[in-house]
Design a protein that fits this description.
The chain is mostly helical and 360 residues long. 56% of the residues lie in helices and 6% in strands. It is built from 17 helices and 5 strands. A 3-stranded parallel β-sheet has the order 1-2-3. Strands 4-5 form a two-stranded parallel sheet. α1 links the parallel β1 and β2. The protein binds adenosine-5'-triphosphate and magnesium ion.
Length: 360
């Protein structure tokens, strides 16, 4: 069997993409794409976004283009990566129908990410069935493309575990090996696997309103950084401060390079020296935020500029989505044929089945 280097990931079009997406997954996708060793698929997960936004499809519709522009701005190249729209891939609505018979309710209810998301959305018992079962649909997304690698943030690990279980149950029950067990590719740095929000909250998330978006303009970015949470016990400049759990330092750890110090704050050689000063006392939050602003502006400026370039020809972006989606339909339909055959419901292409009728 030929080596499987297929990658699949996606994002919900519930808003433009933010720094959490960038460090958690997008940066890895671009790096993997550029090695030329993989066959990447990246999906705009509008069906998944509908699971908790059914009454507000306008929001999803509006964000398809936003997410597509963020992809291109971050460096995804449609010549190397297939970018697709989930709702237009028939396999992605058919496979969950088969898979949902292989998963129990109690297994779904045990999923820690779902538990937390239900709490965050205050669903209580009125959870839309589609939301509760989105891990099954996500298993369909991955397996439809027979993807082996899934670059994601830490919050997605329970989804991948669930997908692997579905794969092994399917292959066991239907005595085949057509579905591929996927594995996560996490960022190497733990602060990237789950980037905190600007409010210091556990996760930067569109739904929590604590995001810095890739498309934020210079002024908005600066405002968000200047009003970020820091160490609540660091009241006076001379007080010793805490860098651990302090979002300003978490972001510096994630984005600042030694070159940034040479350029913007040469009194320190690197972040360790700066952290030491903050912890000792005598370094104010304002100075730290100013450095972070410079670092972020220089990191995001090229992405912002590319986004503006791509925004000039939105028709071209739409064509790119149409083409990527068409390719994805072809690839995933092959999986559907294999799956129907494995289950034994591919009646009209099944010689044995046809002969049975003819002989009767
Ligand atoms: P929503 O609030 O609508 O769920 P979200 O901000 O959680 O949106 P998703 O579209 O659910 O974003 O996530 C897409 C991808 O980005 C996933 O791989 C997820 O792991 C990753 N991701 C999202 N937020 C973060 C974060 N704060 N840190 C690291 N990775 C993240
Ligand atoms: Mg999410």
């Amino acid at each position: 069997m030929e080596e499987n280097n297929i990658i699949l990931t996606g994002d919900r079009p519930t808003g433009p993409l933010h720094l959490g997406h960038y460090v958690g997954s997008l940066k890895n996708r671009v790096a993997l794409q550029n090695t030329g060793l993989y066959e990447p698929f990246v999906m705009i997960a509008d069906l998944q976004a509908l699971t908790d936004n059914a009454e507000n499809p306008g929001k999803i519709r509006q964000n398809i283009l936003e997410v597509a522009l963020d992809y291109l701005a971050a460096g995804l190249d449609p010549e190397k990566t297939t970018i697709l729209v989930q709702s237009h891939i028939p396999a992605l609505t058919e496979l969950p129908m088969y898979y949902s018979n292989l998963v129990t309710m109690s297994r779904l209810e045990r999923n820690p990410t779902i538990k937390q998301e239900i709490k965050q959305r205050s669903f209580e018992r009125s959870i839309p069935v589609g939301f509760m079962t989105y891990p099954i649909s996500q298993a369909a997304d991955i397996t439809a493309f027979r993807a082996k690698y899934v670059p994601v943030g830490e919050d997605q690990l329970p989804m991948l575990e669930q997908a692997r279980e579905i794969v092994s149950t399917f292959n066991r029950i239907y005595k085949c090996d057509i579905l591929v067990e996927p594995q996560a590719i996490l960022p190497d740095n733990s602060s990237c696997s789950r980037l905190v929000g600007t409010d210091g909250g556990a996760k930067m998330s569109k739904s929590l309103g604590n995001c810095i978006y890739l498309k934020d303009d210079e002024k908005t970015l600066k405002q968000k950084i200047m009003s970020m949470f820091t160490d609540p016990t660091h009241l006076n400049i001379s007080d010793p401060g805490h860098t651990e759990g302090n979002p300003v330092f978490i972001y510096l750890e994630t984005f600042a390079k030694d070159e940034h110090f040479a350029e913007f704050l040469p009194e320190y050689q690197n972040l360790d020296e700066m952290k030491e000063h903050y912890e000792r006392g005598g370094l104010g939050d304002m100075k730290c935020k100013k450095l972070l602003n410079n670092v972020m502006q220089s990191t995001l400026a090229p992405i912002r500029e590319r986004r503006e370039e791509f925004s000039k020809d939105k028709g071209e972006v739409l064509n790119m989505l149409r083409k990527g989606t068409a390719h994805a339909v072809e690839v995933s339909n092959e999986t559907i044929s294999l799956v129907r055959k494995a289950i034994g419901i591919d009646y009209f292409n099944d010689e044995d089945f046809i002969n049975h009728f003819v002989n009767i």
